[in-house]
Every structure is written in structure tokens, then in C-alpha cells.
Amino acid sequence: MFASLLKLGAVVSLASTAVAQAAIPNDIGNGVHVPGAIPAELNEPLQHRLAFHGSTGMTVSWSSFIQLSQPTVHYGTDPAKLDQVATSQVSTTYPTSRTYNNHVVLSGLKPATKYYYTVSFTNQGYAAYRPTYSFTTARAAGDMTSFSFAVYGDLGLMGHDGLSTVTGPGNSDTWAVLGPSETNTIQSLLSQKDTYDFMHHVGDIGYADYFLKESVQGLFGIGTNETQPSRQEVATQYESLSEQFFDQMQPITAEKPWFVSPSPVSP
């Protein structure tokens, strides 16, 4: 099977946040979710992402700030008629995480077919507005139709916290700073979303663990005491940066299956 590769060069935008800043704020329930913030509705679905489950299935995943007893996906081939339902009891977390990861497998789908979906608690109460998302299933085995996929790696946050617009005084990697007319990798992936079928991320995701390194380098202050965060600050800011990354990727990963390879550095 032939594949045309859409190669999007990743700018290494390393993750960080300032120790001197106040804690990451909560959303105020105004219909807009701020990346890395705790939503007003703790069961609000965030950070949607997809993964192929063979040619007749798709795994739909998302995060929430409380555990869900029965993660649910409503889906169908007509956006106005989501008449199929899939559920699971998979809502898991880890000790330092602020969120739960919810996973539901949709099975028995038609190959190479576009489906629309929503997940549990979409657009409820004061939650941020989410559209009905869509995805296209994989082609059947033996289908020789050509396809395209985006390939990238070493991908971190956008903006100040991702070092795409500023670096610390102890960091000599000035080449990583983007100018006002330049586009970072997440922006490129989003602007070209209609030109590829799925994504292959070849490792190094988010760089949330760079928070400590960048503190020591002096990005957040000039004194030793100012640049040495506590263990709790490291854990809190690590999780916030990881959440920001997945929030920023969400407009893409909600509709494009995401294949991720392991690497020496992970969030």
C-alpha cells in the first residue's frame, strides 16, 4: 500500500510554567475552557483523542477531573442522528494526576467510513461548548487506495509555557524561539488537518518534565531559592503542563487517530 508522508517539522517547544505565578486558575464556566485550567464542571470532557482499533473499530478517549462510572460515546454516520451507543467502565488515573482517562472502544464499524460522535457530559451546565466530532475508520485490509499521514516528533506546548516565544537566561537554544510570522507544529497540524488521514508521533510528548530543568536554568527567576521548586510544585506544574499540551492538541486529536511511539522522554 502506498502512503504519501506529510512531514511537518516539529519545533521543539519545551514545556514550562512560572513558579512565581499563582496556581493554575479554574475555568469560570463561561463556555470556554482555558488550557490547563480546572473546569467548572469536573465531569466536563476534555482532551479528546482517537486510536484505530483495527479496520472496524475506534478507541475514543478523553479526560475528566472526576472518575466516571460509565464512560459513554454516542455515535453514528449522521451527525443529526447519533443512534448508536458504546460504554465501558474504564476511567483510570495515577497518583499525581489531576484527571481521569476515559476509554471506550467502538466496534463493528464499517471500514473507510466517516462517523460522528459525542461523549459523556458534552455541553452540560457550565461546560465549554464542544461540537459533534467526526472520524474516518481505517481502510479494510488489502485496500490499495493511497493515503496520507502526518509524521512529527519532539512536540511541546505552544506559547510562553512552551518556550516557543521566550527562553530563559540559562538556555542557549535561541533557535527555538518563534518569530511573529512563524508557525509552530501544532498550528501546522491544525491548519493542514484535512490533508492527512491520521498522525504518527515519533516520541517526546509535551515536555512537562522540563519544568524542573527550566527552573534551574533561570527561566523563572535569578536567585537559587526562586529557581528551586518544591516537590509539590513540581508535581502540580507537571500535571498542569501535561494537561495544557493535550488541551492544545484536542482540536486535532478529537478527529484524527493518533499513533504514538515511545521515546526516551515522555510527559
Automatic annotation (TrEMBL):
Signal sequence annotation: 1-22
Gene Ontology MF terms in the entry: acid phosphatase activity; metal ion binding
Keyword Signal in record: yes
Keywords for the protein's UniProt record, in alphabetical order: Signal
Segments forming domain Fibronectin type-III: 44-140
PROSITE patterns tied to this protein: FN3 (PS50853)
Gene3D superfamilies the UniProt entry points to: 3.60.21.10, Purple acid phosphatase-like, N-terminal
Protein's name in the database: SPOSA6832_02560-mRNA-1:cds
Organism this protein belongs to: Sporidiobolus salmonicolor
